[in-house]
């Protein structure tokens, strides 16, 4: 009798484990759970916390229409932001703020609060991997950034590679140098943090990674849709071959800018439907195909402005072979605000807002 019971228990356990594995959805797809981190393409929201909506007066410097939480809900998994040192107006205390170019120009608050927003989303979505890139504009050291991560209680999710001062070789069928999404979830290391620039601190903040030790990127400020390229721009004086040999992951910038008076560049909202779509002059889909052919592997990160337009997520799904994404919140796939030299009423007529 005991042997029969043991058999039933074992079968039940195997069934339960198989059922839970089958039920797990990683980054909106069960098909991505077994994929290695560096073989998945992640849609990125450029300047994620800098929003163009009524709360910012539809600022021309805003790069997204929706909050970071809604970006994540809608499928974005790569978030970038600019970090500056500022002083608290009341106490004069030094703080790290999220500012676009300058805190006197566009300040959306403390880094701590933004990281807390991301941490709360990750707690509510335990099967998702998120990557954050912080442009460390004032060269803050790892200890100070780590202190803010700890305040936001998000450091506990930090992914720590085997070496923090050297990129691993690219994964292939014979050699998995990055973990699978499943493994990162099980190990509770679901947040990859890239900082530019950063002097690594293995003792105090091993999960904070210098951006250009682990990644490379193409040109990021393009004003003509015919000028999108796949060639390395940063680190400087590199080739595609040298970047592949280094194991660095490819950030494919797909950002079209519109030059204003005094040489100021703002996101080109006029052409974003095409820019973030599959076909047309400077389209995201064609840029990804071109870079995939040149680099011989799909970009790891694809960075866009106004991610919901196009919509960019559908192009990334094609490259990830995700046909039926699960658990995503739907957002309007069109322009939803004014700014950047276009009056809202003009935009309503042109784009049927």
Automatic annotation (TrEMBL):
Signal in keyword set: yes
Position of the signal peptide: 1-22
A GO BP annotation: lipid metabolic process
Highest taxon above the source species: Eukaryota
UniProt keywords, alphabetically: Signal
GO molecular function, one term: phosphoric diester hydrolase activity
Protein name: PLC-like phosphodiesterase
């Amino acid at each position: 009798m005991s042997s029969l019971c043991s058999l039933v228990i074992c079968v039940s356990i195997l069934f339960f484990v198989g059922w839970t594995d089958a039920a797990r959805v990683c980054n909106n797809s069960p098909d991505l759970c077994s994929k290695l981190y560096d073989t998945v393409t992640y849609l990125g929201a450029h300047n994620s916390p800098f929003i163009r909506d009524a709360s910012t007066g539809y600022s021309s410097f805003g790069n997204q229409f929706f909050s970071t939480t809604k970006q994540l809900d809608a499928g974005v998994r790569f978030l970038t932001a600019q970090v500056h040192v500022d002083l608290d107006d009341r106490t004069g205390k030094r703080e790290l703020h999220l500012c676009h170019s300058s805190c006197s120009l566009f300040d959306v608050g403390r880094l701590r609060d933004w990281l807390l927003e991301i941490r709360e989303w990750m707690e509510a979505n335990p099967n998702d991997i998120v990557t954050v890139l912080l442009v460390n504009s004032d060269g803050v050291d790892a200890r100070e950034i780590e202190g803010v991560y700890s305040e936001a209680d998000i450091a506990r999710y930090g992914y720590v590679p085997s070496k923090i001062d050297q990129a691993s070789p690219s994964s292939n069928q014979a050699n998995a140098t990055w973990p699978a999404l499943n493994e990162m979830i099980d190990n509770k290391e679901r947040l990859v943090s890239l900082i530019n620039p950063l002097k690594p601190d293995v003792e105090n903040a091993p999960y904070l990674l210098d951006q250009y030790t682990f990644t490379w990127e193409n040109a990021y400020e393009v004003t003509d849709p015919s000028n999108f390229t796949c060639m390395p721009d940063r680190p400087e004086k590199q080739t595609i071959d040298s970047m592949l040999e280094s194991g660095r992951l490819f950030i494919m910038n797909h950002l079209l800018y519109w030059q204003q008076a005094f040489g100021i560049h703002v996101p080109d909202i006029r052409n974003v439907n095409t820019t973030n779509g599959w076909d047309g002059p400077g389209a995201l889909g064609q840029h990804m195909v071109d870079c995939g052919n040149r680099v011989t592997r799909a970009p790891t990160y694809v960075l866009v402005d106004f991610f919901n337009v196009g919509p960019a997520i559908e192009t990334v799904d094609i490259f990830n072979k995700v046909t039926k994404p699960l658990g995503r919140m739907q957002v309007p796939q069109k322009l939803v605000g004014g700014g950047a030299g276009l009056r809202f009423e003009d935009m309503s007529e042109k784009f049927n807002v």
